[in-house]
User: Which sequence fits this backbone?
C-alpha cells in the first residue's frame, strides 16, 4: 500500500476491458497497465512532469511543490494547482483531461482500454477548458446574462473524414447545438459554440454528446456537465460598486442609523448595490466539485478519482 505525502500525487493506470463496476463504485478486477507515460501539467507554472507506470500500474510524483501553490492556512501546509493529465501507451486509448484541481496526497485512477487504431472514441471534452468528461463540472446558469461559451471535443476517428458532435440536455433549449470539424491525423477537434444555458436549475438532468462520423450517428457519450441557477441571474444597470444614498432602502427606511441595530445602514442613507451589465460567467464559476471533489465513476475508458 502506498502512502502519499502532502506534496505527492499518485496515479493508477487500469485496463477496464470487460470489467464491471462493483457494488462499492469501484472497478472489479481491473488489470494494471504498466509502461504507460503519465504527464502532469500545471497551469500555474506552464510546466509538465512525467512518470511511467510500474508493474502495478502505478506512477507516483513524489514532490509537486514546484508546480503548486502552498496553502499555508492549513497546518501543516497543503499543495494544489489547476492542471491537466494525459496518459498514453501504444495500443491503448489516450486518457486526457481538461482543467482540474490537483491536490497533494491524492490518487487518481486513469482508466483505459486497448485500441485497435481504427475505432473512434472521445479523447477529451471541456467546457471553457474545464474537464466535463471525467470529473464533475457544475456551472452557474442564467439566460438573462447570456455569456457565450464553448464546448470543445477531441474525437479520435482514424477512418472518418468529418466529425459532428451534438450537445443535448433533456428539456433544455441547448439541445441540437452542434459543431463540425475535419479529421486531421486521425483526430477531429470540434468546437460547439455559444453553449450557454437556461435560467432554471438543470443539475438534475444528464448532459450528453452524440458523435456523428461522416454524417452517420455513431455513439453517445454521457458527460459530467451540469448547471445550477446562478446567484445573480439578471443584468443590472449602472457602474459597479456600493453607492450610498441612491435608490435604495435600509432596514429602517431612508434615515441613517447610529449603528446600534445590526440591520441599520450607518453610511448616511440607504445603499444600492449596482453591478456591471454583463458578468463573465466563467470568471465566477469555478466548479464547486473541483474545489470540493468527490470520487467519480465513468464508463470504460474513463476515470475514477478525485482532484
Assistant:
Amino acid at each position: 500500500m502506498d502512502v502519499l505525502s502532502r506534496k505527492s500525487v499518485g496515479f493508477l493506470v487500469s485496463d477496464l476491458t470487460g470489467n464491471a463496476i462493483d457494488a462499492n463504485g469501484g472497478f472489479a478486477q481491473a488489470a494494471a497497465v504498466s509502461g504507460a507515460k503519465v504527464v502532469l501539467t500545471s497551469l500555474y507554472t506552464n510546466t509538465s512532469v512525467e512518470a511511467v507506470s510500474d508493474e502495478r500500474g502505478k506512477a507516483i510524483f513524489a514532490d509537486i511543490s514546484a508546480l503548486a501553490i502552498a496553502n499555508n492556512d492549513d497546518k501543516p501546509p497543503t499543495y494544489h494547482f489547476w492542471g491537466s493529465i494525459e496518459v498514453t501507451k501504444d495500443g491503448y486509448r489516450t486518457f486526457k483531461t481538461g482543467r482540474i484541481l490537483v491536490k497533494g496526497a491524492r490518487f487518481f485512477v486513469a482508466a483505459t482500454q486497448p485500441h485497435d487504431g481504427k475505432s473512434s472514441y472521445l479523447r477529451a471534452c471541456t467546457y471553457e477548458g474545464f474537464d466535463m468528461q471525467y470529473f464533475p463540472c457544475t456551472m452557474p446558469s442564467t439566460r438573462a446574462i447570456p455569456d457565450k461559451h464553448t464546448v470543445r471535443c477531441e474525437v479520435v476517428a482514424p477512418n472518418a473524414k468529418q466529425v459532428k458532435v451534438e450537445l443535448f440536455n433533456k428539456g433544455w433549449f441547448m439541445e441540437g447545438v452542434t459543431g463540425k470539424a475535419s479529421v486531421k491525423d486521425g483526430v477531429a477537434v470540434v468546437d460547439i459554440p455559444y453553449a450557454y444555458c437556461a435560467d432554471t436549475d438543470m443539475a438534475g438532468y444528464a448532459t450528453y454528446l452524440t458523435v456523428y462520423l461522416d454524417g452517420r450517428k455513431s455513439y453517445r457519450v454521457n458527460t459530467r456537465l451540469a448547471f445550477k441557477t446562478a446567484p445573480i441571474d439578471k443584468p443590472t444597470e449602472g457602474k459597479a460598486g456600493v453607492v450610498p444614498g441612491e435608490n435604495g432602502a435600509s432596514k429602517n427606511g431612508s434615515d441613517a442609523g447610529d449603528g446600534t441595530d445590526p440591520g441599520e445602514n450607518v453610511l448616511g442613507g440607504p445603499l444600492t448595490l449596482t453591478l456591471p451589465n454583463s458578468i463573465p460567467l466563467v470568471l465566477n464559476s469555478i466548479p464547486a466539485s473541483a474545489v470540493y471533489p468527490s470520487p467519480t465513476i465513468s464508463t470504460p475508458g474513463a476515470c475514477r478519482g478525485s482532484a
Confidence is low (pLDDT under 50) at residues 235-307.
